[in-house]
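Hello Y.,

Per our agreement to keep a running log of every chain we model this quarter, I'm adding this entry. I've kept the format consistent with earlier entries: sequence first, then predicted structure.
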Amino acid sequence: MADAGVEAGQGPAPAEEGAELAAVIGATVPTGFEQTAAEEVQEKLGSASRISKDRGKIYFEVPAQSLPQVHRLRSVDNLFVVVQEFRDYQFKENKEDALKDLEDLVKKLPWTDPMKVWELNNSLKKKKTKRKKHHLQSTASREKLNSDGGEEGTGQQEASKQEDCAQNAAGVEPAAGQDTEEPQGVASRNGEEEEEEDNEQSDAKEELQAGSGSETKGGEGKTGEGDAKVLKFRVTCNRAGDKHSFTSNEAARDFGGAVQEHFQWKADMTNFDVEVLLNIHNNEVVVGIALTEESLHRRNITHFGPTTLRSTLAYGMLRLCDPQPTDIIVDPMCGTGAIPIEGATEWPSCYHIAGDNNPQAVKRTANNICSLLKKNENKESSTSQGIPLDIIQWDICNLPLRTGSVDIIVSDMPFGKRIGSKKKNWDLYPACLMEMGRICTPGTGRAVLLTQDKKCFAKALSRMGHIWRRGQTVWVNVGGLHAAVYLLKRTWERAEEKRSFW
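Predicted structure for the entry above:
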């Protein structure tokens, strides 16, 4: 596929009668990990990706029937189908003229195939929702019902199983409401849960007046296949660049007005069926239709802490250190367990150890492991497979692990903002690096560490140069904060046991 098949002024080629419907997919990914996402797409879908100039986005082409596999990608946050892309769109200098051009654009866009892709995506979502409801209502697993109609156990047994699981994992009681996902907007370290690029991205959810809200969302309540239903929509405009004469809100408002006129849809900012995306980055314009309602990074965590890391960022960090079968992978400051849970899910042939000095963090991680086990049991089969992951409460500076026994360390270090302080980091970072060096295998061991306190980390690393050699550095945007992910290689030198660092 050449250049993701999206040349300026072209949308995906119209599907001929009987031909396979192709979709050009746009994906938002953690900034800095665009290349990682492109590699995953190539590996799992066999498609080449084009990395956008607008950081945090990639584009690739797949057959529409591959949508389920696209949704299972581990490195992407949100997905949309591209209606059309313009690499060098010439905006008029006058605001009214520029907005009028955007309005006129709506009628010229090739909406037909992207809307077919959206409909297919929607039907997949509905099937998934039905399966979820079936699991919640039924006290027996799907496989048991299919094979012999026997019941596995009652809801009470399920609950006690989960409680036992949490106690086994960490010796703690599970918190209430294990199966409910924390509402969006939950505070997380450095705003990871609501991460955005720090250019102007007005969530111009935009500013058409909301409709009456009488229809149900996503086509629920539709009585038959042939029934006409007035879809509800909103336009979201993300704009970056200082040479535009209009704001995101104005672009979304006028573009949205033209979409409403073209399709005769009803505008609704909150209870919408279709989200039309207008992404403007300098002279690059991409029109798309959202395929995800909620970011895919919210896949593993049900119990959030103040420093919950996005699962997509955790995946990118793990992939950087290239885990091999039988590797022992440790996260010594695991928080709510985002990194080790992602690791155990995607690299089950490795053994993962999560630890933290905070008992509350250990409890949250144990509950997150439990929720994942229960979800896997519902999804896979009536017998729980388990995951290769243990959680321990410990002191990061005195880890109960043998010297040289660990292959990989992956951790999100305290930024000194919501957890700890910048002042404490000056003692903590060198102590951590020394202890990590002790447990890591000389010569082959590696560490991938995320921090926003780059000055302190650089200083600590310079003092630990005899045991850690810096490899690749990935600059990432974490909730508007400029952070860095460091790949470190363990030298052959034996780690010192002394505790004096400066």
